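Key idea: predict the complex, not the pieces.
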Amino acid sequence: MKKLDKVLYSIAALVDLGEETASSEEFKKKMRTVLHVTMGTFLAHGGALFSFDKDRRTLSPIASRGFKGLRASKADPDSLAVFRNKPFKMDGADRPTGAFHAKLEKAGAELFMPLFARERLVGLIVLSGKFTGEPYTKEDFELLKVIASQIAITLQNHTLFISLTEKLDENKKLYEEMRVIYNDTIQAFAAAIDAKDVYTKNHSSRVAKYVVAIAKELGWNEMDTEGIYIAGLLHDVGKIVISDEILKKQTPFTPEEIVEIKRHPALSYNILSKIKFPWKDVVDTIRHHHERLDGKGYPDAITNSSLSDGAKILTLADSFDAMTQDRPYRKKLDLHVAIEELRRCLGTQFDNNIMDAFCHVLEKEIKGHLPEPDILPHLAQDFDPSVITTMLEAIREELSDGRAAHA
Amino acid sequence: MNTFNVESKIFGSVAILYPKGYLNNLAAEGLEKECDSCISKGIKNVVLNLNGIELINSIGISILLGVIEKVKGTDGTLCFTNLSKLHSETFDMLGLTKYMKVYASEEEALAHLQGALG
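Result:
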């Protein structure tokens, strides 16, 4: 009867072990519980579980009770292979030798069992003698083998999980590095474009900032905003092909020269279409940054409904910067004149919604509502904030009335 | 959730511990911690009243062995009281009873401890 009860107790312990190894508890807690189950099953007053780190070739204690001074130790999986998933007595004739085992024996270890999963060393379980002073029996050994194989699988799963997590982190790092290189390359490109013409110095990087300000105001997501930033940086790359003589000319262009200059959006497109950008629409946005809503733009002379929001944003930002900076053939325009010019061309060249977003973000920047303004720091001219604010408010009201009337 | 908690009373040089709930998960290590805290106050003798313990599994046995070892380590005496029939059968089956001082009630355990001390 007593024997049967003991078998039932052992089975109950195996059930407990199964529940514990499958639980979602944090790993160390789980292993501590597993150690309790094992020690309670054999009435051991001391016990320890080690996990094996195959890179460092080290066994480290992850749970221990009743033993003092247990430390991580180097281990050789090959020399432990003969003891694979078999309990061994520390004082047996066939016991392993070495400093680590001497230390374990000194700590009070009596049983020792390397844990292998799929032929690989994953850990070690060590038990003291029984609390009752009785020796371990054959049945105990058989039960311990079953328990150990479960623990080995748990350790193996944990190791796999950790190495997957590490790989994932490594990939993330690599990806971040690639992104940095990618961005640096694009920045270098943009600098090359701007360097071509002293009069358009920093034009690309300013336009990139303006388009981002507008996109954010329109509530674009991070990925799309990054895409239009890149489009802003690279939109004039085609100018690299156009001769300096034309770009730096101070007298009016001849009709032939105008034709030549108007090639640049399509040239930019041709150069960049070889690149597989991770953002959608970058090259199309660039191709269409001189199109107009009324179809009188270039290179494709398409109209409002065929133009993406991105192209409309880039067109407005590009024109705004062109007007507010000095050009070889004219001085820069005052801010209020430039804004008035944008307003005048609404519906023919520029889109109402984009203009509304642009006015709103500029208004917020002037009022100091944005901690990191994108437009204001680049304007390089004095203006009366109250005059501009009134003007922007009036335009926005007009646009809002227009929308209401339209609805 | 298996809940576990433990309270204690101190009578002179003896602490009486009242664990409550299930001795079957890591929370039961609270019993060892309570025992440690009594020992750190200089108490050597401990009475463990198991009246509030509903279930003991292998984890609980491991923790009880830990408590026994702790008290043994201070040259003190650990007495068990208020064991249910199931507790007694479990300890018997595991062969632990002969290493435990078991009493029916706290009073008997205290009388033994005072006799031994006196």
